Amino acid sequence: MSNDREALRLAQQSMAFILAGGRGSRLYELTDIRAKPAMYFGGKTRIIDFPLSNSVNSGIRRIAVATQYKAHSLIRHLQRGWSFFRAERNEGLDILPASQQMGNDNWYKGTADAVAQNIAIIKGYGPKYILILAGDHIYKQDYSLMIKHHVDSGADVTVGCVEVPREEASAFGVMHVDENDKILDFMEKPADPPAMPGHPDLALASMGIYVFEAEYLYKLLEEDAADESSENDFGKNIIPKIVETGLAVAHPFSRSCVKTGIEKKAYWRDVGTVDAFWQANIDLTDFTPELDLFDNEWPIWTYSELTPPAKFIHNEEGRRGSATSSMVSGGCIISGSSLDRCLLFTGVRAHSYSELSGVVAMPYAEIGRKAKLKNVVIDRGVKIPEGLTVGYDAEADERRFRRTKNGVCLITQKMIDALDA
């Protein structure tokens, strides 16, 4: 938590509104049954836990989460892991699924509409400032410092931004700023992103984080809802309008990111593709990972199942329960299986003579005897049959599973069942 008392005071006057309704279609089958913010990450947590933990650690105790696509597992996770707020202290976590309202469609039409449909609920908490957050990125940030920057600058909106390679920037809102952080231009997902001044290979991308003074935001949203030509979206409509007519200020992530001694640079990831998801998880097994999940000063809170410790059994040549450069969660049993650079979530079972390298296995997956797996993502509860080999024959992998351009294979139970069809 910030040592800046003024920043903390401002955070306590704020409410966080997390937009967590997206599917994340580039994750393909992984989001067939769950929204992207509900995706598992890092062995114990889910993606939504990062903006939620950042909010709580920053001193914000009034939070709303807007859900839409395949929201059941996300809502269940929030109910189980985030029910510790005390209403008598004006704290709370409101889960806001898209619901039918008078004179309105039941779906959220855009990010701004998701907030607009819930203004009455937000007003019930009486916040002075509102922090709009995306629910699907991995990072640690002290939002109180960003809110303080917003207040000190006198901005109408403050936009959190991060430097990204220019070739990747077309997936984001991109901005051009002057030397005082004033946003001169804002483009949502441009085909040809503008480069940062002096950095031709980099672009300044929106993190999907915005700070507003509450009364100003209510007025903006009412005007936007009345505009029939609007797509009711922050990136496409609200922010460009403020850039044109008011004062929009950029807040570089580097000014408020949370780092420990081992984290050398600001860490922010959009794990929106199978390759990015696999890489970010496997990176955690590095000797010195870029993201420190062992940071007790800025914990990532989550719903934690009650499980026994991980267990490694058998000690024979070729049948030895072992793991190198790996993270193994509670409830796992490594039974005569060898792991190298793997990340196993809760309750995974790896049976004798199996060899796992670069495996990200979600909760309660089971790897059969003599399976040989390399660079794979295994969905929750999948049962890998005995003797299956994946990651060593590109053509065979392409036929049976979803193989990415980087050679990572996604395995679901439906794909396994199709092998016998």
TrEMBL record:
Keywords, ordered alphabetically: ATP-binding, Carbohydrate metabolism, Glycogen biosynthesis, Glycogen metabolism, Nucleotide-binding, Nucleotidyltransferase, Transferase
GO BP, sorted A to Z: glycogen biosynthetic process
Ranges that cross the membrane: none
Coiled coil: none
Positions bearing the site annotation: Could play a key role in the communication between the regulatory and the substrate sites: Q68, W107
Superkingdom: Bacteria
Keyword field contains Manganese: no
Pathway info: Glycan biosynthesis; glycogen biosynthesis
Enzyme nomenclature, EC number: 2.7.7.27
GO MF, one annotated term: glucose-1-phosphate adenylyltransferase activity
Residues that coordinate or bind alpha-D-glucose 1-phosphate: Y108, G173, E188, K189, S206
Record-linked InterPro entries: ADP-Glc_PPase, ADP_Glu_pyroP_CS, GlgC_bac, GlmU/GlgC-like_hexapep, NTP_transferase_dom, Nucleotide-diphossugar_trans, Trimer_LpxA-like_sf
One Pfam assignment: NTP_transferase
Record keyword NADP present: no
Domain Glucose-1-phosphate adenylyltransferase/Bifunctional protein GlmU-like C-terminal hexapeptide: 308-411
Family label: Belongs to the bacterial/plant glucose-1-phosphate adenylyltransferase family.
PANTHER family for the chain: GLUCOSE-1-PHOSPHATE ADENYLYLTRANSFERASE, GLUCOSE-1-PHOSPHATE ADENYLYLTRANSFERASE-RELATED
Role, per record: Involved in the biosynthesis of ADP-glucose, a building block required for the elongation reactions to produce glycogen. Catalyzes the reaction between ATP and alpha-D-glucose 1-phosphate (G1P) to produce pyrophosphate and ADP-Glc.
Record note on quaternary structure: Homotetramer.
Listed name of the protein: Glucose-1-phosphate adenylyltransferase
Gene name tied to this protein: glgC
